[in-house]
Give the backbone structure.
Amino acid sequence: MIGFIVRRLIGIIPTLFFSSLLIYSILLTAPGGPEVRFAQNPKVTTAQIDAFRARWGLDQPIPIQYCRWIGVCNTRTGTKQLADDPVGGLASLFISPQGVPNFLPSGLGGGDNGVLHGDFGYSSTNGQPVVSVIGGRIAATAILGGVALVVWIALALFSGVIAAVNRYGKADTIITIFNYVGFSFPTFWLGLMLILLFAGTLNWLPSGGMWDVREVPIFGTDEYTQLLRERPVFVLLDLARHLVLPVITLVFVNIAGDSRFVRAAMIDALGQDYVRTARAKGVAERRVIVGHALRNALLPVVTNVALELPFLFTGAIVTETIFSWPGMGRAYIEAVSEYDYTVLMGILVVTALIVVLANLLADIVYAIVDPRISYG
Amino acid sequence: MDERKDAPVTPAVGESGQDAYIRAEVEELEASPDYDVALESLGQWELAWRRFRKHRMAIVGSALFFTMVLAGVVGPFILPFDLYTIPYPDVIDSFGRGPMLGHPFGETARLQWDVLMLVVNGTRLSLLIGVLASIIATVIGALVGGIAGYFGGLVDTILMRIVDSLLTLPLLFVVLVFTKFLGSGNWLSVTIIFGLFGWLGIARLVRAILLSLREEDYVDAARAAGVGNFRIIFRHLMPNALSPIIVATTLSVAGVIIGEAFVSFLGFGVGPETPTLGNILSGSQDTIINGNWWWAFFPGAAIVVIVLGINFMGDGLRDALDPRAKI
Amino acid sequence: MTTDLDPGAHALRAGVGDVLLDVRDLRTHFKVMDGLVKAVDGVSFSIRRGGRLALVGESGCGKSVTALTIMRLIDQPPGLIAGGEIMFNGRDLLKLSDQEIRKIRGGQIAMIFQEPMTSLNPVLTVGAQLTEAILLHQETDKKGARRIAQTALEDVGVADAKRRLDQYPHELSGGMRQRVMIAMALSCNPALIIADEPTTALDVTIQRQILELIKDIQTRTGAALLLITHDLGVVAETVDDVAVMYAGRVVETGSVEEVLLHPRHPYTRGLLESIPSQGKRGKPLSVIKGMVPNPFRMPPGCKFQPRCPYQWGECATGEAPLISLGEGISSRCLLHDPRFRDRLAAYDTPMGDPA
């Protein structure tokens, strides 16, 4: 098992490498560049832009920029030095101050710059380290996504099983129609409609945000943690109230695929011979469905769910925007608006990593739950 | 066997649940190979058309979709849009007025545009963007998938590694960067961006089908007869993948329409001089909380109708063209 | 020896105390696209306690559906039990509630299926699947159930039974899995074991072993056996009595010797003649002409009439009932109708005197 996981971990390295290259080239192909945000500002002079480019290392050859961002090269060698001594300067790029290859972990004497060393650079809008920008947002996204995931898997399993057991019956038809309609809703519009109904007309729930700004301090700050410790019920209830609408939005739109998937897997399982065997043993129908059929149908479902995990982060982009949820998705939109390249790249790298790890998780989970798979 | 095929399918008398069940059974039987043999003389496309016609959801879906197409094609001639002609409302009400006789979908807040006018013009462009982008994506996907699947080996490994890597980046993230940074707000460039990044699924699909087909004898025969590789891919093999490609392309139209709507709603996509179902919604969020629901409701409902229609149609197409496909 | 088997249903009342299962005029139909498929259409037979009966026929003749109907394992819809009685220990199984039939299933009637490869649940251990039935039908705890399961496995000749309990089905061979199925069937001491083509999916060498095992178990436990098969060779070796089915009906019944050596019904005769054997070496093998009738276009008269070499005008319109010929022998053929005595004389086989 350990060997299996290690082998799969090694296998994802090339994919991640390609992804990082792609992220870099995509942002490179996108017109403008980090300085594009000054383009509309007549007060910014060319000299100032040049200084900005020099400060961010944008005046250097692109391969070197990439190499440094990823952390294989270091930042010690300047442009001037490269021009004076191309060979030595180039070689020195790859050697850390401690004299070993730069890509090695800092603990082993490697460099401390670049993605490989957990250094994503600094936000070009507010100068904060990208790591702390993302770190501050990722928790909010995980809370929203996690709650939505639990609700939607529970509902998908339930509705899928009901539909399969009553195949072509009334319940199945209703669930199928519901799924199709949900699937056809644009997430952002559903969010708008929910706000209209529950926040506007009925005024039951807040229209957005993650906490009540009048009563609760900013999420993630020490004050928030302190209040959470002092009045946990109050803070959590406040959080729950803010979660309702975004979670409904995420669940309603995303449940369809999983519900259909569970239904298909269950119909498949219910038609198998072993289900007939179980019935022939005198097993009660409920137990036949849950203990025998669902137990088998869960195998493909579990894999499917693992593959959907990244969606919790990426899918949140729409919900977070509509409901002003301070998560990664909104951070991404803000970074796009502000041409904040370092934050964009940071979020994309984190997302790619999550996707790849989720794929790996799907494989591992499948190997664990299906006794027929040997991971030799 | 032959009288059977033309006999109208009348389910046995019984309660409605039973009928639905029998109807479903009928559909399954029709999809079974035996039935195909019986109808062999009809030809593949005729056969698919017969199945499609009997698919209730597909017919409902087509009706929804083509109603919207009609609205998008005819509507703009009756209610033309011109960004530079600011409407002169008979009653000034910057909050916008709700649905009424002259303006069945109401007016927007601020400039008081007629929402119906925005919807028909937005529908036209949204549909155009969806269809065009999907065609671009299909062409690229078929090309990449075809080459990867036919040649296999190193070519396949490299191409699929690229596809896998691209799949680690959420489409919406990438498209947002491009639509924003290209900056022009031009609908054609937005279309091309969606097309350029939307081909991954189709490439994988085509590759999988061609990988299995390339081992067939007729491929060897064609090769032995000196037929060129590209001719084999696109004349001999691709027609076999046509059914799943058509289904995937149809469904992708829905995906693009929703994606474009969101991007334009954020103000990163198509600019306000050319209305789409997404960008006419931007700004509606600010007034929705005060009760101006019609501005956000009708354009969004138009998206739902179009997308629902396409999804139903796509499902019907899948059943009609590719009856053995699951789910 | 075979007098106590008399499928001529009503003549049977006399021996009721000895009868374990009595199926009378069973009709199981399926609603499908073009109407009704009468998969089982008036099947009657009975098995005494400890008796062994084979239900024989080509695939599609309704023999498996009959077995599944006895177990009440027909999905409704599309299935529809249109009529008949299944008297088991004096109770009509068709009239039992779901809960009552569940007590019978696996407890008093056990079933062995055709496909050992797919009949066991792939994600549950052998032990879990065995103990499930035991816990349902016997007064015991988990530990006890495990002990009973182990004994059952040992009884069916599974070596290293204790270890097997913790294995998954995919770790066992086909023959081994069928042994597990048999162990599952016998673990609750059923009064009746239904074996639906238990050897068809197995290798020839394994087939014999499994057959011997079933016979052995049956004699040891005294359970009655209903064997469903298309293989007359298997029939000859395993059972005492035979009921031959064609197109949803029983067409002939009798002891195994009578039916195999002196077939009454033209269909049984055709079946026997199509089996290759030493005696027929060098001669062309005869086959039954034509095909099993389309279930939607059953002949109006005798269902075998279109394929029958002995048919005459009467057969196209009239269908014979199951005519009792004494000694448990019966045949559903107009030749045995007293009205057509003269024709029977021309039926050129050495047959027992119908009188």
User: Anything to note?
Assistant: Chain A touches chain C at residues 272-274, 276-285, 292, 295-296, 299, 369-372 (CB under 8 Å). Chain A has a mean pLDDT of 82. Chain A is about 70% helix and 0% strand. The radius of gyration of chain A is 26 Å.
